[in-house]
Amino acid sequence: MDRPLLVVDAANVVGMVPDGWWRRRAEATELLRDALEPLADTGMAGRDLPAELAWLAGPALEVVLVVEGAAAGIGGSPSVRVVPARGSGDDAIVNLVAEEGGGRRTAVATGDRALQSRVARLGASVLPPTALPLRARLPGDRARRNRGW
Fold first, then answer.
1. Fewer CB near the terminus (10 Å): N or C of the chain?
2. What percent of the chain has pLDDT over 90?
3. Which residues make Cβ contacts (< 8 Å) with residue 107, sequence separation at least 6?
4. What residues pair up with 126 in beta bridges, in sequence order?
5. Phi and psi at residue 88, to the nearest 5°
């Protein structure tokens, strides 16, 4: 049986940490990829998941990070597959769910309502970005120092 699939909308999730990520999108996306690594082995155990997504708490998730724009050049890692979108990131996510999500549990992490509707029509569950581990702050984050955080 295939591992459950967790697809992460990098363009939507990377901004969860307010540290000037838009100036250093590729670096911020690499930090997001690194924060997702443990989910491949441990699942989302210990996270506050709705009952209908409890299956994500089990081990061995296939984690896929869909990237676009300035982040399209980042590489994958041993535990997180990175898929660069050739056009729209939303279209790439929908295509990925359609091609790889059939016959197995699939969740898409995004706050984008239009994308949530599209993947739900394909049978995927929707996971709010707040359920994911936060990425590390960018090194030398000036926004943090300037605002006294």
1. N
2. 85
3. 4, 5, 6, 7, 53, 56, 124, 125, 126, 127
4. 108
5. -70, 130
